[in-house]
Each structure stands twice: as structure tokens, then as C-alpha cells.
Amino acid sequence: MRIPNYLRLAPSGIWHFRQRIPQPLTQKLGASEFARSLSTRDLLTAQVRALTLAQAYARAITEPRGLDVMATEGKGMVALQSVNAPQVVEVLPAARAGKKYRVVRNADGSVEIEANGKADHALAKDMVESIGPFSREAYVIEQASRPALSSDSKIPALPIGKVVTQWLADIKSGTKPKTFSIKTTAVENFARHYGEKNPLKDAGRIDVGNWVQSLRASGLQTPTIVNKCSYLRGFFDWAKARGYYPAFAKDDNPAAGQVVFRTREKRLRRAFGFKAFTDDQVRTLFSAKALAGLNETATLGAWIGLFTGARVAEVGQLALDDFVVVEGIPCIRITDEGEGQSVKSSVSNRTIPVHPKLIKLGLLKRVDALRMAGEKRLFPKVKVNGVNGSGNWLSKAFTRHVEAHLPKPEKGKLGFHSLRKTVVQGLQTAGVPAEIRAAYVGHELDDEHHAAYSRAPTMKELLAAVKKLNWSVDS
């Protein structure tokens, strides 16, 4: 939701009003804007109070003798001493009991305000001119984007709490236990904030925006809020498909676009996220001496991570059927088709050649032996549909291994995901094209040209590229 530029949210969660002072008066007043607390954490209430406050300031600026100023000693300039414009406490009674203007958006895109009489019309006009066109405001955009419902609409006015319960029951069987718990917490939290007995069909972008602001006020960081919004977005998509919520365009989901990473947050994520291993660190971790302290299955998983760049869950969930031969080349298939298998996104489904180093380490012999023993999975003891995913055991074991042999970095962190970054950067250093790198590790290229016009690389091309990964580690 786009917040109007005259509203600012303080760290305390209280909304503040800011209005720019006309340029001819800024030097005279020694200030460039008015700023007042609106004494509310609710966005809609803040907007109503801001409208009333803006109109009062507009009159204070334009009325004769509305401003008193005094000279600043030794500066040759004048500064604001007092402004005969009201404080927010003076306009709150009027704002709370003020008129509920009806905003109408016409078919041609223009916006009108319905007012009663000339005086009321003039007041509404002053308010619009003081703050800006209503057509740019969040609540008008909300009205415009929501499809109009006729009186005989077939969309039922179901309480959101009841619909959330039905949604959870519907997705439970196809969702990992840990993911299901996280989704439940997020969407039920929104339902409580919105009001569990309130009709779902009336929930809109402003309601989601208010919820997001409450999450920020509670101290949650942007990545967590982004995840919660993604789960809520899925809920609204499901509700629309079931006919419990008005239809909306693909990009008009009420929970979409509510939160974005600011530049500083992106920089911090890069600085404090997982770091790639250096060549020396790889040789230390994968030396025979170091690996002696890591159990056999975790060692195999670590080797696979080092030469595939696969995510830890993708490694932990590997089935024996995922080892196939394509174009005469032994390959590993990473897929979400098997029991308990999942991938991050559709582009994560991929088939990649087995690195010669993994063949030398006996990976394919192990696969054959497990097949002879009647097993179905590369790591038979790993629980299918475990609460924390198929790779949790490997992630923990490798993290302990890293902590035992490498010092903690000053910034960022090291773990199994570092192997993925190490592979990507290793391929990049070796001059492997971005299309090949993306296909090998299951990344999506942002460039639409590549997605629309490039072909998928052959297994021979992939094998030739990954053979360049060589850290000269012990066998």
C-alpha cells in the first residue's frame, strides 16, 4: 500500500502529519514544513485527522495576520515564533465527529467528492488543494481497484475466521508441518487484527496495510513481514478461487506489494547473510583430517553440496530414482515429484550431471548398493515430511563441522548454504556463462530476454562447465 506523502510513521507506531510550507514563506518562517503528531496508530484515523489539520493550516497561512514572526539576532533572517494554526488536540473533536465525505471515482478515472451545499463544497475543495488529489490516496485506489458488487452479489459475507479455518484444513495435507505452522500463525494473526467475525469480502489493501504497520510496530523485521505477507497473499488467492472474495487482477492481490526491501536493508542482508567459502576454507573443511570427525552420511551430503550447489533440503530429500542417465551421462534429478519432496520454485526443478569427483568418491556405487538392498532414498534414515524438512539434520551437522574448523567471520555467517554460493562464484570465476550457472543451481534469470529466447543447456554443456569446479581437495 502506498502511504500518502503527508503521513509519517514514528518508531513508536504513532502517525505524524507533515505539510510543506509554501516556498515564499519558508525563509520568513525559518521552516520548510509543519509537523504534528496525530495521536493514533490507525492509518484510516490518521488520514481523517490529517485532512482536517491540513485545512486548518491552509487557512492559517492564507488569512491576514495568521502568522507572527520574530527576528533572529545576528542572523539577518527571521524565524518562526508562533503560528496561529491549531494543534492537533484542537482539531481532534472535529476530526472524530467530522463528516464522512463520499469519494466517487468516475469511469474516466476522475475523482469527485460529494458535499452538501456551497460551504461544504468549498471546505472539501480546500482540503484537497492543501493535501493533494484524492485520486492518489490509498483509500481511493482501494475503492477503484475493488470490483463493484451488485446488491445481488453471490459472494457470501463469511466471517474471515471461518474461512481461514477452511483454508488451513484444505492446505494441511500438502504442506510441510513446519511451513503449515508458520502459515497458520501469519494468516490467523491477520484475521485477529482485522476481526475474526468481520466479512472476508470486505477486507482490502488498507486493512492489510494496517496489519503490516502493526507488525512493524511490534518490532518485526522486513524479511519476516515479507514472508507473512506472502502467506496472506496465498490465502487471498485461494479465497478468490473459491468465490469467497471478489475477483481481482493478478497483481491486485490485497497482500501484494505491501512491503519492499529498502536499499539499506538489502545491503545489510548481503553483509550479514551467508558468505561463500574461500578456496583455502574449502580445502580445510574437506581435508581427510577434518572429515574424520563428520559422520559418513553427513560427509556424503557435504560432498554433494560442494559439487552441485544444491540447497540442503534438495540434497536431503534425494531418492534413488533421482539418479538417472541422460544423453549417456549420469545425472541427478532435483524435483518435487516424489513423496516428501519439494523445491523452492518451478525453476528449481532441474536435472544436472554428476560431477566426476562425486563418481570418484563412490556416489553411484552407493546408489547401486542401496537399490540392491531395496531402499528408496539416498539417505534412508531421514524422516519423510519431517517438521523441519529433509535437510535439517545435514544443515546442523555441517554447521557444527564448520564451527569446529573455521573461525567465526566478522560479518555474515557460514553454513551449508555457503556451499551453494561457493559453487556459483566458482563457476563465475571459471568464466561459465550466467545461463549455464542458473540452470545448474536452479536460479531464475531476471532478464526476460534469456527466459524467452534462450534454450536449455545440454547435459554435455553442463558437464563441461561443472568440470571446471576443482578445489584440489583430498579424496
Molecular structure report:
Residues 64-98 and 130-152 have low confidence and may be disordered. The chain is 48% helix and 10% strand. It contains 21 helices and ten strands. It has three domains: 7-145, no CATH class; 160-262, DNA polymerase, domain 1 (Orthogonal Bundle), CATH 1.10.150; 273-466, Intergrase catalytic core (hpI Integrase, Chain A, Orthogonal Bundle), CATH 1.10.443.10. Strands 1-2-3 form a three-stranded antiparallel β-sheet, covered by helices on one side. It has a three-stranded antiparallel β-sheet with strand order 8-9-10. α13 packs parallel to α18. The chain has helices spanning 23-29, 43-62, 88-96, 117-131, 138-145, 160-171, 177-194, 205-217, 222-242, 263-272, 279-285, 288-291, 296-308, 312-316, 356-360, 363-372, 392-405, 416-429, 434-441, 448-453, 459-466; strands spanning 7-9, 15-20, 33-37, 67-72, 77-83, 102-105, 111-114, 323-326, 329-334, 350-353. β8 and β9 form a beta hairpin. By secondary structure, it is mainly alpha-helical. The longest helix has 21 residues, at 222-242.
